[in-house]
Specification:
Layout: H1 2-27, E1 37-41, H2 44-52, H3 61-68, E2 71-75, E3 82-84, E4 91-94, E5 98-103, E6 106-110, E7 116-117, E8 123-124, E9 130-133, E10 136-137, E11 145-147, E12 152-155, E13 158-162, E14 165-168, E15 174-176, E16 182-184, E17 191-193, E18 197-200, E19 202-204, H4 210-247
Antiparallel strand pairs: 1-2, 3-19, 4-18, 5-6, 5-9, 5-14, 7-8, 9-10, 11-12, 12-13, 14-17, 15-16
Helix pairs in contact: 1-3, 1-4, 2-3
Length: 248
């Protein structure tokens, strides 16, 4: 009975984490270039493998459930819809790749191309991180500056920079930072230059579909309620058993 109670509690904890992930997706439905997170859990087979391999005591299944059924998430890297803004420093990547940004924690990557020029003449992201070119930070001086479809930064007829568009050897092995940017999960997943075209005056929308997230939220709520009823049922059975034992 105790094992069933612990399993129900773990299920409810997972539902709360699942709801937190869905909420983050919903909050960022209008954030350019945002990639939705998909909650994942270890398969049930991992629980049986843990017991059979002796990684946990076979009689202490509850501890194994608690450690094996940990919720995580993976990124949905599908491309969001492209919208026209007409702004000269809004860019969308037509194809694979990410803009490279220099953050205080090092290089990070994003599909959000809502850039602007800061007070020192650097091209920066909406968060203030320097957009990287092939030669480092992109410096913009003067008004006669434009970017073409190949990512060349032009001042009149002279090229003064080149937007750095990068892709990864293993596009599925990416994680999201606390600031919502993307980084490789490990050093082995190298970033290489992408030849994707740049759409100037356009932005990529978030790939979050509100209706899909709402359905997932309702499913999670129903699942939480079911686990809660299971917990309450076993708790009532336990109280009844204790009262019966007290009568002897």
């Amino acid at each position: 009975m105790a094992n069933a109670l612990i399993t129900a509690v773990q299920s409810m904890q997972n539902d709360l984490q699942y709801m937190d992930t869905i909420s983050q997706n919903m909050v960022n439905v209008a954030t350019p270039g945002y990639k939705r997170a998909i909650p994942t859990a270890k398969p049930l087979s991992s629980l049986f493998d843990a017991v059979m391999k002796g990684t946990e005591l076979a009689g202490d299944v509850s501890r194994t459930v608690e450690k094996s059924n940990v919720l995580g998430s993976v990124l949905d890297l599908s491309t969001g819809a492209i919208k026209q803004t007409g702004k000269p420093w809004d860019f969308a990547i037509a194809g694979d790749g990410y803009f490279e940004l220099m953050t205080p924690e090092g290089l990070a990557y994003s599909r959000a191309g809502d850039f602007h020029v800061d007070g020192s003449g650097r091209l920066v992201s909406s968060q203030g991180y320097a957009v990287q070119g092939l030669g480092g930070d992109i410096q913009v001086r003067g008004n006669d500056v434009s970017v073409d479809h190949s990512g060349r930064v032009m001042q009149g007829e002279t090229q003064i920079g080149q937007l750095k568009i990068m892709k990864f050897d293993d596009p599925k092995n990416l994680v999201k930072t606390l600031s919502g940017l993307i980084q490789p999960a490990n050093a082995e997943n190298k970033a290489v230059e992408s030849k994707s075209e740049i759409q100037v005056g356009f932005l990529e929308n978030s790939n979050v579909t509100p209706m899909r997230e709402m359905v997932a939220m309702m499913e999670t709520t129903r699942h939480f309620e079911s686990a809660q009823k299971l917990f309450q049922g076993y708790d009532e059975m336990l109280n009844t058993a204790i009262q019966k034992l007290g009568e002897f």
